[in-house]
Design brief:
By secondary structure, the chain is of the alpha/beta class. It folds into 2 domains: 273 residues, no CATH class; 109 residues, Thrombin, subunit H (Beta Barrel). It is built from 13 helices and 13 strands. The strands form 2 sheets. Strands 1, 2, 3, 4, 5 and 6 form a 6-stranded mixed beta sheet that branches. Strands 7-8-11-10-9-12 form a 6-stranded antiparallel β-barrel. A hairpin with a 6-residue loop joins strand 9 and strand 10. The radius of gyration is 24 Å and the shape is flat.
Length: 441
């Protein structure tokens, strides 16, 4: 009897069993896993890893963490740079070129696919469980919970027998499974002391500036700078390159899974076929974003571990916001939390649990849409309702540790929006920044 304990260790997801909610409002989020490129060669590589590992997936996404894709060890990467190991790396004084970025992105895509991370994501969506191949089964519990489907809507065996059932499965695929992403974050750093040291250093009498932390032997020998930084650590800024990948889930992939692999009752042949499949389930690279804020130095407020965690969290959040604006399918949806009225019942605005962490600023504009289920097709559509904008001075600062810093807006319970145009806005309707191609007027 072949055991699947090792298989499940590799394939099972680290996400919770239940979908996240915003207050009492449930809605369909994109699913997200996050990965770190770990640089053990960097002095502060372990601190960055520890900070990253302690941060949750942003709550505007469903947590689809995959255990076997949590970190990529840069010291064990070969094949990206010609005649060198590791990724092309952003260091002090060196920005990555477009060709270096693309090489990193495509190699990571290959790495993720070689590790069958996409298969892990599908296994997580369909609850692969069991001690052995002989008793392993799939289920649609997570899809029901995250998509607010009835059990019969996504009962695969029943659904495949009717047109309406297939439409429901297709809707789940388009709205949920196909909206599954993994974000690979390559984080390097700059310190205040590092900048000062570089400004003073002269290499071999040539007057060249250098970075004491590029990893070269010369940098490690100069003035024992690393020890000085470890002692003082008065400033820390990170360079974050984020590479976004999307699970490929289309009609042909779905057909293979539903017809050849999915089974709600023990069927060793189907489960083994799923485990052996090396080609059907893939991730594809879709976008890149880079964040480096020269002014993002925090001093005197944090001990080292918390400082690194705060800066890394904010840097990744900025990249997620930029990627959502850049790539249509990655857009964040968030529900209208409350209609705000005065004592006379007049509408004064609209509240949403979204803020600076998601890139909101005074005047940011959003579409308000309503999710509609077509009774004929059982598929979801989005109908335009109104346009709103954030009210000046009423944007919630929900960035990591904003309350600790006594930042303006940190104590607000939400961001307040005012209507620019359109019809009646009700709690539970969704806010989407900018225009969204799936919205019908």
């Amino acid at each position: 009897m072949k055991r699947v304990a090792l298989i499940l260790l590799t394939l099972c997801v680290g996400c919770g069993a239940f979908s996240q909610t915003s207050g009492a409002l449930a809605y369909r989020r994109n699913a997200l896993a996050m990965t770190l490129v770990y640089h053990p060669e960097d002095e502060f590589g372990p601190q960055i890893f520890k900070a990253f590992d302690s941060l949750p997936v942003p709550d505007k996404y469903d947590d689809h963490t995959i255990r076997n894709a949590r970190t990529i060890d840069n010291s064990k990467i070969y094949g990206v740079q010609p005649n060198a190991s590791g990724y092309y790396k952003a260091t002090y004084g060196h920005q990555l070129t477009s060709s270096e970025l693309r090489a990193n992105a495509l190699y990571t895509e290959q790495l993720l696919n070689d590790a069958e991370v996409a298969k892990s994501m599908v296994a997580a969506w369909f609850g692969l469980q069991g001690e052995t191949v002989e008793d392993a089964t799939f289920n649609t519990t997570l899809i029901q919970e995250r998509g607010q489907y009835n059990a019969t809507d996504v009962d695969v065996e029943l659904a495949l027998q009717t047109v309406r059932g297939v439409a429901a499965l297709s809707d789940a695929g388009e709205e949920l499974i196909g909206q599954t992403f993994i974000l690979v974050n390559d984080i390097t750093y700059v310190t205040a002391e590092q900048e000062a040291q570089a400004a003073k250093a002269v290499i071999n009498g040539l007057g060249s500036l250098f970075d004491a932390f590029t990893g070269g032997d010369l940098g490690k020998t100069v003035s024992n700078v690393s020890g000085q930084i470890a002692d003082s650590f008065t400033g820390f800024k990170v360079k974050t390159h984020s590479y976004l990948y999307q699970l490929v889930w289309n009609d042909s992939v779905a057909a293979v899974f539903y017809q050849q692999h999915y089974t709600a009752t023990p069927d060793p042949k189907k489960v083994q076929a799923f485990l052996d499949d090396k080609t059907t389930y893939r991730l594809r690279y879709v976008a890149h974003e880079y964040e480096f804020d020269k002014k993002s130095v925090l001093k005197g407020q944090y001990e080292r571990t918390e400082l690194v965690r705060t800066i890394c969290a904010r840097s990744m959040d900025k990249n997620i916001v930029a990627l959502a604006k850049q790539y249509e399918d990655f857009k964040v949806k968030t529900p209208v939390y409350q209609v705000l009225s005065d004592e006379h019942g007049r509408v004064m605005g609209y509240a949403a649990k979204i803020g600076m962490k998601e890139g909101i600023s005074d005047g940011s504009k959003f579409q308000v849409v309503q999710r509609v289920i077509n009774p004929e097709t059982n598929k979801t559509t989005y109908r335009y309702v109104a346009t709103v904008k954030a009210v000046k001075g009423k944007v919630w600062d929900n960035r990591y540790n904003a309350v600790r810093e006594h930042a303006d807006g940190a104590t607000l319970p939400y961001t307040t929006f005012t209507k620019v145009s359109g019809g009646e806005i009700l709690p539970g309707m969704l806010l989407i920044e900018g225009r969204y191609r799936k919205v019908t007027e």
